[in-house]
């Protein structure tokens, strides 16, 4: 049919709850029925991402597939429920709107009744996408507050494990791995004796000892990290890093910008307090 408008739909579910999955399925049906009622529309595809944060677009596989198809000239218009279902990042929203505008691809936001190819669409978009970004910020603040409360209670938050300890995700506790603990003791003993981190790393590599990641190649920085890690004396310091903002998810070392939580005698030590302090 001549002058058919090639239409795509996009839908994102932000959590993996059953309620949201049902919503996701109903939206897919909604878009199929909507396109069927428009004889001048031709449905290209329904693009959908499940259970992925809306604040970043680079992990949304179907979103990226849709953008690629639009840039390749396969789509004339994208329909989506609202700006917050498309993206909650103002910069990303405007970047993709402008990119698609250059390719003469429209985005139709149903809730806000915006067509990005219309004259006032971009002005409305700046305002509404800013509001959408503000929506994500209090959610992030609530998550941060919840994590801080867990830290205060002594629960391990964001623990990635360390050499010498095994982590139990159910009890959220760590226990000594004796085989690995011997390597930790070797490192502290050699360091207190006067050997430098570079020398110790070479010794460990030569002896065939394995790092936490299973490598027999040791680096000076790995040895230094172990010597500085308070967990080896049975203490726990949480809040060493923090997330800068809910959009970039960039993490920085905490140099006093956020509260830290230090708990003595949190678990069984591998190194005595005296040995640890001498090493420091």
UniProtKB/TrEMBL annotation:
Residues 6-154 form the Resolvase/invertase-type recombinase catalytic domain. This is Site-specific DNA recombinase. Residues 162-280 form the Recombinase domain. PROSITE patterns: RECOMBINASE_DNA_BIND, RECOMBINASES_3. CDD domains: Ser_Recombinase. It holds the Pfam family Recombinase. The lineage of its organism: Bacteria, Bacillati, Bacillota, Clostridia, Peptostreptococcales. Gene3D superfamilies: Putative Large Serine Recombinase, Chain B, Domain 2 (3.90.1750.20), Resolvase, N-terminal catalytic domain (3.40.50.1390). InterPro entries: DNA_bind_recomb_sf, DNA_bind_recombinase_dom, Resolv_N, Resolvase-like_N_sf, SSR_resolvase. One of its GO terms (molecular function) is DNA binding.
